Amino acid sequence: MSDKAPVLEMRNVDKSFGPIDVLHEISLKVHEGEVLCLLGDNGAGKSTLIKTLSGVHQPTRGQMMMDGQEVRFPRPRDAQEMGIATVHQFGGTYPLMSVGRNFFAGAEPTKGFGPFKVFDRQKANQIAVEEVQKMGITRITDGDRLVGGLSGGERQSLAIARAVYFGARVLILDEPTAALGVKQAAHVLRIVNEAKRRGLAVIFITHQVMHAMAVGDHFAVLIRGAIAADFRKGEKSREEIADLMAGGESMADLEANIDGMADA
User: Fold this and answer.
1) How far apart are CA 236 and CA 213, in angstroms?
2) CA distances (Å), 36 to each of 50, 103, 172, 205, in order?
3) Residue 48: pLDDT band by 50, 70, 90 thresholds?
């Protein structure tokens, strides 16, 4: 791992909503060219953590750091301008818009002058297709194709390629494989590895241990808003990680409890 400061770091971050504490002393760091897998079951606090990283929520206490310097993100746009891109579960794409339009939504290239400027569809389509294909999505060859006709994995890949093109340094992926079949999920995992190869710092949020182990370098398990374990690749088995996510209760104990209930 590089001796450079982490691209993004949280130091003892708490997040409270009135009297309710949601995040407790979260300390995490991710370096360039590294995938940090944040594992947790439903209700573990993953959504609040994502929103805090991306500027939707402000930490109640603690520090956010980029490249060793403290930063604050009063708005999501501030986080985006610092190079933090969040791709949510369904890619944040618009089904009734074309690939080119989706790729440049909010940042459309234009041609012409003054009041005669119009959307440069040819340029948008060309760049969008090129960038998506660089990420390994060879099936997309027409920038005019409607995104609604793409698979879930292709939509995720389009959103990731867009983030990379617009200069993301930190890529936050919120359950990108949760609603996908085996083939599509494998495709997204290849895209995650490609983003890592390009030097991005990737935060991969998931509750699927196998997917995390396929791409992760560094792992953190979140339980009830706190980090229950923090470890590197190869330090824990799949079964140990699953036990941690279950709150420390082993799968064998859970199965025994279920069998006992069935016998009662």
Assistant:
1) 10
2) 13, 26, 10, 8
3) very high
Q: How many CB atoms lie within 10 A of CB 61?
A: 12
| Co-location of 120 and 250 in the same domain | no
Residue at 154 is within a domain: no
Instruction: Read off the tokens for 242.
Output: 């699953």
Residue 158 lies in a domain: no
Do 181 and 86 belong together in one domain? Answer: yes
> Per the structure, how many domains does the chain have?
2
Q: Residue 259 belongs to what domain range?
A: 15-93+169-263
Q: Which amino acid is at 143?
A: G
Is 6 among the domain residues?
no
Residues with Cβ within 8 Å of residue 30, at least 6 apart in sequence: 6, 7, 8, 9, 36, 170, 201, 202, 203, 218
Instruction: Tell me the per-residue pLDDT of 142-193, one tens digit each, with 9 for 90 and over.
Output: 999 999 988 888 888 898 899 989 989 999 998 888 878 888 888 889 889 9
- The predicted model scores a pTM of 0.85
Tell me the per-residue pLDDT of 125-142, one tens digit each, with 9 for 90 and over: 999 999 999 887 888 899
Digit-coded pLDDT (tens) for 17-46: 988 889 999 999 999 999 999 998 877 888
- Euclidean distance between CA atoms 210 and 15, whole angstroms: 29
Q: What are phi and psi of 196, to 5 degrees?
A: -65, -45
Candidate from 82-91, 138-147, 194-203 with smallest mean pLDDT: 82-91
Whether residues 141 and 105 fall in one domain:
yes
159 within a domain of the structure (yes/no): no
- Say if residues 39 and 222 touch (Cβ distance below 8 Å): yes
Does residue 28 sit in the same domain as residue 61?
yes
d(CA 204, CA 172): 6
